Amino acid sequence: MPPSASGPCTLPRLPQAPTEGDLERGYAQRGAELVACEGARSLAVAIHEAEHRLEDEQLRAREARRRGWWSFWR
To answer: Residue 2: CA atoms inside 13 Å, Cβ hemisphere, count?
Structure first.
């Protein structure tokens, strides 16, 4: 999992006495950070789901091998 997906999102903060330019820049930066954070979160969720899907497939395959051919005749 990428480190950006496991760490917290950091959003830019406004200065104590923001000007109109600070507000505009802050909103643009915050929007970009939210998009990046959401992308990292989506990637982490996709990786997590894929890992569990692979684990389930391995467990089913192991169970099928353990039962053997005689389980079909029961």
So the answer is: 12
Q: pTM value?
A: 0.62
pLDDT digits (tens, 9 = 90+) for 31-70: 999 998 888 888 888 988 999 999 999 999 888 887 766 6
- The answer to whether the CB of 27 falls within 8 A of the CB of 35 is no
Give the separation between CA 39 and CA 12, rounded to whole angstroms. Answer: 17
> Token digits for 41?
């979160």
Q: How far apart are CA 69 and CA 60, in angstroms?
A: 15
Residue type, 36: A
- Residue ranges in the chain assigned as alpha helix (H): 3-6, 20-67
